[in-house]
Amino acid sequence: MAASATVSHGSSRLRRCIIAIEGVVQGIGFRPAVYRLAVSHGLLILVTFRPEFSAPWIGRPHVTALTLNRLTRRDIDSLIEGVVGTRSLPARIRQDIIERTDGIPLFAEEITKAVLDAEGESDAQRTFAGAPTPVVTVPASLQASLMSRLDRLGPAKDVAQVAAAIGRNFLTRCWLPLRASRRWN
User: What is the pLDDT of residues 46-105, one digit of tens each?
Assistant: First the structure.
């Protein structure tokens, strides 16, 4: 979740602000008190969630639901262009990314980055070894893309995996015994 502004109940005068709550799932995230606060103080709250989530606030006054559809092929191509920047990406690979990502922006962005990262590493290795250019493959899924990036971290992969298991927030005293038991020094 991310908030673009901090709002206080006790404040006598609130400025207009937008609060963004991203990726709400059942049982976690948006609370009825937030809705009441938004209505009473004229706040704009943007809440994102997947279609399978049953949003309890839909249908209430002051609520507008907007369904965002998948991006078109042209939109995904523009997104890829933005990620690629000044680097080159063969048309065949670009088309493969467009087809595999099925209009999902995060997937398209991550897969494009994974391909560029893999291509960059391959370029460096080929230059050093004087080897011919291999075929760059597009990861089959977002998970495959993320796993590929994780594998390239080397020894830091263990740290990332343990941190993912612990969660976003943890106390340093919880981390220190784990660090001592591993070779992360």
Answer: 888 888 888 888 888 888 888 888 999 999 999 999 999 999 888 999 999 999 999 999
What is the pLDDT, as a whole number, of residue 177?
A: 67
- Kindly report the number of other CB atoms within 10 A of residue 74's CB atom: 9
pLDDT in tens, 130-185: 444 455 566 777 777 777 778 877 777 777 777 777 776 667 676 666 666 655 54
Question: Which residue stretches of the chain are H helix?
Answer: 32-41, 73-84, 91-101, 105-129, 142-151, 156-166, 172-181
Could you give the number of structural domains in the chain? 3
DSSP state of 52: T
**163 and 117 part of one domain:** no
Q: Clarify whether residues 40 and 95 are in a common domain.
A: no
**Which residues does 111 contact at the CB level (< 8 Å), separation at least 6?**
97, 100, 101, 138, 139, 142, 145
Paired tokens of 35: 């809705």
Residue 28 backbone phi and psi in degrees, to 5: -130, 135
pTM score of the predicted model: 0.53
State the Cα–Cα distance between residues 67 and 146, nearest whole angstrom: 27
